[in-house]
Amino acid sequence: MSELLHVGALVPAVLGTGALVRRRRLLPTSEIVASILMLVGMADAMLWHLVAPVYWSAAFIAIALGLVVGRRPGVIVRGGTSAHHVRAHVALTAHVALGLVVMAALLVAAGSGAHAAPADGHCHSCGGGIDGIRLMALALCAGYVLVTAWCSRSAHHTSGGRLHYWMMALSAVAMGAMTLV
Known about the structure:
Elements: H1 2-22, H2 29-48, H3 53-70, H4 83-110, H5 129-154, H6 161-178
Helix pairs in contact: 1-2, 1-6, 2-3, 2-4, 3-4, 4-5, 4-6, 5-6
C-alpha cells in the first residue's frame, strides 16, 4: 500500500512539474525552479534518502518565503500585462508557495510514523504529538485543494496551467494519505 501511495504522489508531481516546465517561455523562472526542487525533495524523501526530510522541509519553507517576498509587483508573466495575466501569475506564485509549505508539513508528518517517539506524557489528550502533526498536515491538504480550485480558475485553458495545479494537489492528497498508513 505504501509503495502505491509513493507512486501516487510522485507521478502527479512529475506530470505537474512537466506541465509547468513546458510553459517556461510564459512563466517566471523562480516558480519553475521551486517546483523542480519540490519534486527532487519529494523523490529524495521517498526513494533515495540522501537528505533528512526535516532539512527538505526547512528548505521548502525558505523557498516559499523567497517566492512570496521576492515577487516584485512590476514583474508580470511574459506574454501579457492584462489583468488576467497578472491574476494568473499571482495565482501561480501563491499555489507554488503554498505547495511548498504543504509538502514541508507532509514530509514532517510522514517522518512521524510508527518509528517516532510517543508523545510526551504530560500532553494527555491535548491533540498534540504525532496525531496533531498528522491532523495539521491533512488540514493543509484540504486547504490546498480549495486553493487549487481557486487558482485553476485563473489558469489559461490551453497552457497546461490547470494540469499543473491539479496534479500538484493530487500529489499532496496522496502524500496526506501516506501519513495515515
